[in-house]
Design a protein that fits this description.
With 170 residues, the chain is mostly helical. The protein is built from seven helices and four strands, in the order ββαααααααββ.
Length: 170
């Protein structure tokens, strides 16, 4: 009897909050498997928003339609095209621009992400490598603690292999 390929390992973070866990799961469903790539994305989001979806630049906790200046949400969408793009996307695809689901779905549909995602799917790269590439995704002006956060995530992640019934071929 031949077995199909085993289930893919899953990166988990037991002591992460719900939005961090949702982001980690979402990214892996998109095929991003590298611990360093996953840690880099989460480290950047932590620096941008602390994983608060209802945060306006400067720290005010307001809904999408009440953030009048600066960035908003998980990755602090700042420019008019990116900020209004979130609202337009969620109207078109029936999602909530204040929710983790709506913001993650929008994030991966932006051109900046589409350029970065194939890089994040490359295995064996360092956090510094992925961090350098992610600058073009977020355009951060201040490096801040994002790399420190990424290393912290990488150290907290655990790799598990799902227990599943073997799939047979033939």
């Amino acid at each position: 009897m031949m077995y199909d390929h085993p289930p893919a390992p899953i990166v988990v973070c037991a002591n992460c909050n719900d939005n961090e866990k949702a982001t980690l799961k979402f990214l892996q469903k998109r095929g991003i498997r590298s611990v360093n790539a996953l840690a880099t994305v989460l480290g950047n989001i932590k620096q941008e928003s602390g994983f608060h979806t209802n945060i306006c630049e400067g720290g005010a906790r307001v809904p999408y339609n009440r953030c009048y200046s600066g960035g908003f949400g998980l990755i602090q969408w700042t420019t008019d095209s990116r900020y209004y793009g979130l609202g337009k996307f969620c109207r078109k695809y029936n999602c909530n621009p204040n929710s983790i689901d709506g913001q993650l779905r929008y994030m991966v549909n932006e051109n900046q992400w589409k350029i970065l995602e194939p890089v994040l799917k490359q295995p064996g790269k360092s956090i510094e490598y992925y961090m350098g590439k992610s600058y073009y995704w977020l355009g951060w002006g201040v490096h801040g603690n994002r790399t420190r956060f990424a290393y912290n995530y990488a150290n907290r992640f655990r790799i598990t292999v799902p227990v599943d019934e073997p799939h047979t071929i033939g």
